[in-house]
């Protein structure tokens, strides 16, 4: 278990035209505040200690580096699915997503 003073949070914003950008970051109590504010506004939270370490090295306003594009893209895509959002031309060809729930 990690000590709370080492807890970190990094918020990313993705506008769809450029790489996601760091919009907030902090550790300890500030990290708790970032997470609480995100939850208050219905933002999905992903907890990953290793990814958090990498993102915490970025500065506010900085775009994520190309090395993180795939993992962040997968998280964004998964968050869309969790919210029931799909691309206009997407077809559930494999019937893997149950729309009835």
From TrEMBL:
It comes from the Bacteria. Keywords: Bacterial flagellum protein export, Protein transport, Transport. Required for formation of the rod structure in the basal body of the flagellar apparatus. Together with FliI and FliH, may constitute the export apparatus of flagellin. It comes from Rheinheimera aquimaris. This is Flagellar biosynthetic protein FlhB. The keyword Protein transport applies. InterPro entries: T3SS_substrate_exporter (IPR006135), T3SS_substrate_exporter_C (IPR029025). Belongs to the type III secretion exporter family.
